[in-house]
């Protein structure tokens, strides 16, 4: 039986990606598989991924996109591939290893098909937890999260943490069929699609989502999201809102 698949999107990660980040997935879980998706890297990422996958063994595989199309498309391609292969659950995980592997798999263990269909890591700086995040990213993240929460009608604290797991439902497969409109805010777009549903699959209510405050998370240097990108990210929220409204009108029209 196929096990859960963790999709790892990669773009020009030759100097940042570390084998030891992924070893716990293979060493501590007998069923988990890793799927590295190279998003058209222009450095030596593909060769480095080959080395890592070979060292990790048969439960690590790779996909290579011919051109760079952004993290959103890399994640979508990876999740769809894993679902087609029969994975009962799928997740995505940042290549920098900011979230420990143990925390990622703790998210997986929260899933209960039909009850908890989406489990998301949340970076909450509580006493007794080790959340190391630059102040700028924290405060801009709070503004973004507030806007995303209003858009989604979902009291979510952290939409942008790069650690999420999903039950491989027909709904998830359907909403992944079309490319995301957003390049950076695709997490919000994906959650929005799951909330809305499709003409043939009912959407998820708030009770189907759970956020887990991470015990540990570290802001790794070299993030692709720069200060100059934040206006674009906020603009993507507007695009998502319009796209969601259009999908809702289309569904109402098809149901009338």
Q: Keywords, please?
A:
single chain, 256 residues, alpha/beta, Spore Coat Polysaccharide Biosynthesis Protein SpsA, Chain A, 7-stranded mixed sheet
Summarize it:
The protein has 256 residues and is α/β, with parallel strands linked by helices. It is built from eight helices and eleven strands.
Task: Give an overview in words.
By secondary structure, the protein is an alpha/beta fold. It has one domain: Spore Coat Polysaccharide Biosynthesis Protein SpsA, Chain A (Alpha-Beta Complex). It is built from eight helices and eleven strands. The strands form three sheets. A seven-stranded mixed sheet has the order 3-2-1-4-7-5-10, with helices on both faces. Strands 6-11 form a two-stranded parallel ribbon. The longest helix is centred in the last third of the chain and has 26 residues, at 230-255. The mean pLDDT is 90.
Shape: globular
Unreliable stretches (pLDDT < 50, length at least 5) are: none
- How many strand elements? 11
Characterize the largest beta sheet: strand count, sense, and whether it forms a barrel. 7 strands, mixed
**CATH topology-level fold name:** Spore Coat Polysaccharide Biosynthesis Protein SpsA, Chain A
Strand order of the largest sheet: 3-2-1-4-7-5-10
Radius of gyration: 17 Å
Helical percentage: 40-55%
User: How many domains, as an integer?
Assistant: 1
């Amino acid at each position: 039986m196929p096990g859960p698949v963790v999709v790892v999107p990669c773009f020009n990660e030759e100097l940042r990606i570390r084998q030891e980040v992924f070893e716990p997935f293979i060493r501590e879980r007998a069923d988990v598989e890793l799927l590295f998706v190279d998003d058209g890297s222009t450095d030596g990422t593909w060769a480095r991924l080959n080395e890592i996958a070979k060292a990790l063994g048969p439960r690590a595989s790779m996909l290579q996109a011919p051109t760079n199309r952004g993290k959103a498309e890399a994640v979508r391609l990876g999740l769809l591939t894993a679902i087609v292969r029969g994975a009962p659950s799928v997740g995505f995980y940042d290549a920098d290893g900011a979230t420990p592997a143990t925390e990622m798999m703790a998210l997986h263990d929260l899933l209960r098909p039909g009850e908890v269909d989406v489990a998301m890591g949340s970076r909450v700086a509580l006493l007794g937890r080790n959340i190391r995040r630059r102040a700028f990213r924290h405060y801009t993240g709070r503004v973004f999260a507030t806007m995303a929460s209003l858009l989604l009608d979902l009291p979510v604290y952290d939409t942008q943490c790069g650690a999420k797991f999903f039950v491989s439902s027909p709904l998830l497969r359907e909403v992944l069929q079309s490319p995301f409109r957003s390049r950076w805010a695709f997490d919000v777009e994906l959650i929005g699609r799951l909330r809305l549903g499709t003409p043939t699959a009912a959407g998820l209510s708030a009770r189907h989502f759970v956020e887990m405050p991470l015990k540990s998370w570290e802001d790794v240097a070299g993030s692709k999201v720069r200060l100059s990108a934040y206006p674009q990210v906020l603009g993507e929220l507007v695009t998502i809102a319009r796209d969601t409204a259009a999908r809702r009108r289309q569904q109402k029209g098809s149901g009338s």
